[in-house]
């Protein structure tokens, strides 16, 4: 199975490497070709342009956002270079809007579109332990399952319609953001009453809230440790906005998402946009006069 | 150490029983004396009136709410019956307002007031595995630590001021409510996109959200299983309101708490007040036209 | 008709004066008696204690808040001094809770309780042009209508239950607060786009929003002129909280009220509590990075 | 001055007619040409295609939304048909995004772009009494002022950047939506307390809230008279969303806009999308159990 991989950022690079190590023949493309060097050294074929992936049976993209994905895959001709019957797997977090556009474009070309965004950061990607959230034609999902088995510890299937996977990914990121906001608000509440936020968070995560997400974000908030950014606050706003769009499509009011949007905007206005998104907790602290 | 225990509801009864089994001499009082019978059969002394606890060294109350606590302990004379130097431990979830009032009343009588609300429901109380959130004079906390060791698996200390423990308890309940609301909103979002909420929740709780609280409430919401009520929705509104009051005292805006309040009120207006508070998820479902 | 007037603050003083000028025999009481001097010079009888109003047929109070009203009228014995058949008119903005308590206390004594909060500030009170929002027994309202005719330009009747008038007053103050918040948000929006808020507000108030309330608050916000305080921001928070309580009694979610509460708290945390409540607009400006 | 007018809907038709009556030479285009007949009968020249406006010195469009404006003016070649130096006036309510795109497209062609959305409905347009909110190059605004003088009672100038006019228009529509929501919430509050909303609204609009907007929307809400739709609820959601986008561009949190968005979505989910946008008040009524 000849695979092409477009987008060799911090996530894409280790993912492509894992496929290479698993023995797949890989063609790679990245906007700045330097990122491809280690892969090329290990046997990957370098594409100069997106359209050079012609001949690939399976194409995976892990590109930064909607606009870049659209540009690389459609405008720069990556999809047009493929033969009918190929599978295109988009593993980035994108909007439902883009998902529809890409699926429809693929459909006209006889290409099978699979949405497969992932849960897990760089180290998880490197270990091949991602959780892969998929939606698309069941036959095609079976066909590329070996690829997913290399990249992730588990593949989840949410339906035949690619939007279903992007919706689930956006819902999961929304859930993460609600954790940050709720810890931020309660940390401000207890701090205002003279209690160390870390004592409160330690108690929570030792009892009912013993999930990694509370431990990680709780720890960062208690220590106000917002650099380096695991996930930038500006990206948090983007994902909440995409979740709101997915919700609006089906008439789902999401008041927590609305609070998140306003608070992310507040954080960016105060200059925190490049911090880790857990710095959303600064908003509660500032508004309470605690900073 | 002679202990008095007032309030033998679903939580108070097993707690008092554990103290009895641990060998303490216990006087018990309950509004309807029938609840005291099993304890009396096992050796507890029955008080006809709250003031009959006179002579106790340590008094524990686990009464339903602010008004009843005030009535039993002050109006009906329980505290007046105690000798200076006694310790009064209030283990119920009450407002900071009441905490201040009780602490001040005790202080005038030379009684030591300890706030010690708990995390854990009936089965946890029965197993002596509560998490006990305390605040009060350190010396007095050390004095009653053996009592806490019988009732709970762990005692947490949040400061010398009793309000600090009630604030922490209210913050913890706020956190629980945010879990319910966020799961409710995202369950509506995915359901509106044709995805089974249980598949979504199963994925979440198998990955980043592997805490008991997400498993329990997520499961209830996925199955719309809101009876029997582990914790009634009307009590959820009450606790969010108390958290808001604690926040307002120190000028802490809590926009998630505000959303929770409005949604709890909505739920009660639709007749869901006696369901488990995870039925808050019905609000998102109804507002999205999914019910 | 012998009238007693308790509470001679900035509103009470001109109101009592108008009654005196209209020829009524007036007994007056105020916490600090100095405020009574001008009235006494004009013929009012000074009461040393609230209970000295004994013998009055109609009692009016215009006291600062719930606690003081309760203290003066009940604890200090003003109501107890009255004969059955007297009318007690509470013209201050108080909670529905206090309204119920006072009405019930009066009812036991055979006193007729009328809630009659007012719209209008000091100058309006002085001119006898208040709008008086009443609820109570229709017969008694007719009986005291001549008094209202002196104090106000118009008397509005909202029902037989005194809570209905306090609810209307709280709803009106909520409406005023929404005007301030909406002007504050849109002023921040246009300012962030390089438009002078005063140009925007001038356009609005010259067209669809040609009401006094938009002109007054819009002007203050455009000029950031928040002193002297016509109505203190801390009182704005209090009234929004009372509106929320009135709403919660009948299961009415009010998400705009929730936003107002959080933003008033934010304003107070930043030190703006003593400014005019239109300084709520500072919250939008600060959160947008415009201050 | 040869003028072209594209978009002869309920607003465009009377506006074009006024220009004709004022003696201008007008070319008109509409998707369905039938709407142009009365104008052609009165002397307007009918364009078969948007590009047939070639030769016009001033072009006005009043098209339904962003997508149609983009399609007619760019894709179908209206702008390409113009000579450098022409002025294009967009009088519809569109997004800042589209405003930027159109302005940049015009700039490349040497066409002067003016944003000039209006306040006022059909009858106001027919009477030539619109309020016209403009932004663009001051020289060009002076050049077309005679045109605005025909269409409106007053022209407001908000800056040189066309986005400034679209931002002001979106801010004004946001303000209108806040009026509807605040009346809706307080109407629910008073109704739940047994007070007729119409009595409450009558009092408000006779006193502090004596603006047309409160009278109109207040009356509709009091009588639950939501058809015929003066402005459809779905369009209300669209405009709030555009206001949120304009706010996000400059980092302005707008929590009232967030509440509006969620409530408009709720209304649409319950089937009220085609009612007048004042039917937003149904959301408060339903959530309070009053419907």
> What is the terminal separation of chain A in angstroms?
56 Å
| CATH level-four homologous superfamily name of the largest domain in chain A | NAD(P)-binding Rossmann-like Domain
- What's the CATH C level of the largest domain in chain A? Alpha Beta
How many strands, which pairing sense, and closed or not: the largest β-sheet of chain A? 6 strands, parallel
> Could you estimate the helical fraction of the residues of chain A in percent?
40-55%
CATH level-two architecture of the largest domain in chain A? 3-Layer(aba) Sandwich
Mean pLDDT of chain A, rounded to whole units? 97
Shape of chain A: elongated
- The CATH topology label of the largest domain in chain A is Rossmann fold
- Rounded radius of gyration of chain A (Å): 20 Å
Number of DSSP helical runs of chain A: 12
Number of domains of chain A: 2
Active site (chains A, B, C, D): 169
InterPro entries (chains A, B, C, D): 3-OH-isobutyrate_DH-rel_CS, 6-PGluconate_DH-like_C_sf, 6PGD_dom2, 6PGDH_NADP-bd, HIBADH-like_NADP-bd, HIBADH-related, HIBADH-related_NP60_sf, NAD(P)-bd_dom_sf
Keywords (chains A, B, C, D): NAD, Oxidoreductase
Domain 3-hydroxyisobutyrate dehydrogenase-like NAD-binding (chains A, B, C, D): 165-283
Concise structural overview:
With 291 residues, chain A is α/β, with parallel strands linked by helices. The first copy, chain A, has twelve helices and nine strands. Chain A has two domains: 2-160, NAD(P)-binding Rossmann-like Domain (Rossmann fold); 166-287, N-(1-d-carboxylethyl)-l-norvaline Dehydrogenase, domain 2, CATH 1.10.1040.
């Amino acid at each position: 199975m000849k695979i092409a991989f477009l987008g060799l950022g911090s996530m894409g690079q280790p993912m492509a490497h894992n496929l290479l190590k698993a023995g797949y023949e890989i063609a790679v493309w990245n906007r700045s070709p330097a990122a491809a060097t280690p892969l090329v050294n290990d046997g990957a074929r370098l594409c100069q342009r997106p359209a050079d992936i012609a001949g690939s049976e399976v194409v995976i993209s892990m590109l930064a956002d909607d606009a870049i994905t659209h540009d690389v895959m459609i405008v720069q001709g990556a999809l047009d270079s493929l033969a009918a019957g190929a599978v295109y797997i988009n593993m980035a977090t994108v909007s439902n809007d883009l998902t529809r556009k890409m699926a429809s474009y693929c459909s006209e070309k006889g290409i099978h579109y699979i949405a497969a965004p992932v849960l897990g950061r760089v180290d998880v990607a490197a270990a091949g332990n991602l959780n892969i959230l998929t939606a698309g034609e069941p036959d095609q999902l079976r066909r590329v399952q070996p690829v997913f088995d290399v990249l992730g510890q588990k593949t989840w299937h949410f339906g035949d319609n690619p939007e279903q996977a992007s919706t689930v990914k956006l819902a999961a990121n929304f859930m993460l953001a609600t954790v940050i906001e709720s810890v931020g608000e309660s940390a401000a509440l207890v701090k205002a009453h003279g209690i160390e936020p870390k004592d409160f968070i330690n108690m929570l995560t030792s009892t009912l809230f013993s999930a990694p997400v509370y431990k990680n974000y709780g720890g960062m908030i208690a220590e106000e440790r917002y650099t380096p950014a695991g996930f930038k606050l500006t990206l948090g706003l983007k994902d909440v906005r995409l979740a709101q769009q997915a919700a609006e499509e089906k008439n789902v009011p999401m008041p927590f998402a609305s609070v998140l949007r306003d608070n992310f905007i507040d954080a960016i206005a105060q200059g925190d946009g490049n911090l880790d998104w857990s710095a959303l907790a600064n908003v509660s602290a500032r508004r309470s006069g605690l900073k």
